[in-house]
Amino acid sequence: MTRVLVVGSINMDLVVSSPRLPRLGETVMGSGFAIYPGGKGANQAVAASRLGAEVTMIGCLGNDEFGAQLRSNLEREGVDIRYVREASVSSGIATITVSDCDNATLMVPGANYHLRPEHLDEVEQAFADADVVLSQLETPLETVKHAAVLAGRHGKPMLLNPAPVIPLPEDLFSQITLLTPNEHEFLTMLAEPTGDWRKLLVQHPGKLVMSHGKHGAYYALSSGELRHEPGYVVDAVDSTGAGDTFNGALAAFLPLGLKEAVRRANAAGALSVMHHGAQSGMPTLDELEAFMGRPA
């Protein structure tokens, strides 16, 4: 059982279904509304936990009703929340508009931005106890950087899902073991808006895994050979949380080697888009193994 430490965000997702995404200044009549637990950190923690990992979460919730609900949800999912703090502010929220399996998201960080580097120092033992550390960019950048320092101090691989995407500072890039952008985030992360992603992958062998939706994922071996792990064909209804499922699975299965971890992460991500909501469709280990008996 892989011990995964997730340092990241915990949000409540307010999801609107719409026949199409509104243009600037336009009002579109929606067709449905739902509230789901979310946040990239919590989503990835839940994904890894359902796939059999022993997951511990470091994060921050507000002292509001959303905070209480989100804390209870993580407990139900088997995530160790002893290091989830509470701040006297509102919990993070994300408003998500879903249309024809695409989505557009606006996040208000709230309590997530009250997770500071010194809070990680207080729970440094969690880094020593982990097999893999996983983070994202919905908490302060300084906190993510410090998580990378602590992971390195204890010799633990650190995965970073660079979302919401920014050009990554060199000091953070150099400290991360594995970066996991999607195809939209890849060039922005490297500050190469007109670059060729294939060439850039080869220039950073073993450092980057680029997820590409239904097309699967791409990465380069230490030899410089570009590798492609194909995706799985499914009937998709909602892509929200697919990337988080991919990342949680990648962390859970990383001890099996990069090729196998990516293969399983592709399958987990495919399963997740067959249901509405970020966490609702995240598969269990049994569901994943049954699904992977099908041809890719």
Automatic annotation (TrEMBL):
Gene3D superfamilies: 3.40.1190.20. Pfam families: PfkB (PF00294). ATP binds at residues 182, 211-216, 243-244, 266. Pathway: Carbohydrate metabolism; D-ribose degradation; D-ribose 5-phosphate from beta-D-ribopyranose: step 2/2. Activated by a monovalent cation that binds near, but not in, the active site. The most likely occupant of the site in vivo is potassium. Ion binding induces a conformational change that may alter substrate affinity. Residues 1-284 form the Carbohydrate kinase PfkB domain. Its cofactor is Mg(2+). SUPFAM superfamilies: Ribokinase-like. The active site is at residue 244. It catalyses: D-ribose + ATP = D-ribose 5-phosphate + ADP + H(+). Substrate binds at residues 11-13, 39-43, 138, 244. The keyword Kinase applies. GO terms for cellular component: cytosol. It is found in: Cytoplasm. CDD domains: ribokinase. Keywords: ATP-binding, Carbohydrate metabolism, Cytoplasm, Kinase, Magnesium, Metal-binding, Nucleotide-binding, Potassium, Transferase. Homodimer. Catalyzes the phosphorylation of ribose at O-5 in a reaction requiring ATP and magnesium. The resulting D-ribose-5-phosphate can then be used either for sythesis of nucleotides, histidine, and tryptophan, or as a component of the pentose phosphate pathway. Belongs to the carbohydrate kinase PfkB family. Ribokinase subfamily. Belongs to the carbohydrate kinase pfkB family. This is Ribokinase.
